[in-house]
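hi! just following up on the protien thing from before. the input was this:
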Amino acid sequence: MTGEALEFTLDSLDLASPGLWRRLMDLYEVLPAFPEVADTLRELRAAGFVTAILSNGTPAMLDAAVRRAGLHELLDAVLSADAVQVFKTDPRVYDYGLRQLGLKASEVSFQSSNGWDAFAASAHGMRVVWCNRYGQRRERLPGAPDHEITSLAELPRLLARPMPPNLDAIDV
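and the predicted 3d structure came back as:
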């Protein structure tokens, strides 16, 4: 899906050229993690949290990105929507993640920097923290994040206190 979207964008902008699509797609496998991610994962694991990724990326793309970022030892699971042959925001992807982790939606604190993903996880019954790094406006979708942060470094402190039920969005 990412490849098709990139191809459409390059065509739409008249930027298509031999090899450009491949070079850009290859960059997905070497994207660095944000600087605070590794320390945040270490802190969460030390506090007893299970850490996992649930992504629309392919297993190969996720494995390459996680290893390149040095996060493979900090994650308990790396889950791809590829396993259920649909993409987020389809509820089957969130159900798959819950089944793989053996958890109920209400037991999960779901973090995403994608507003659409955060809102969908919230509509699925998860407690959600939206990492809104760039101050984006809230999307007009069902569900709403329980908290909004600008860096994952804020997450351990936030999760150390009880999260409220998913009533209205509460900004941190």
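The CA atoms of residues 1 and 17 lie 20 Å apart.
The first strand starts at residue 52 and ends at 55.
cheers
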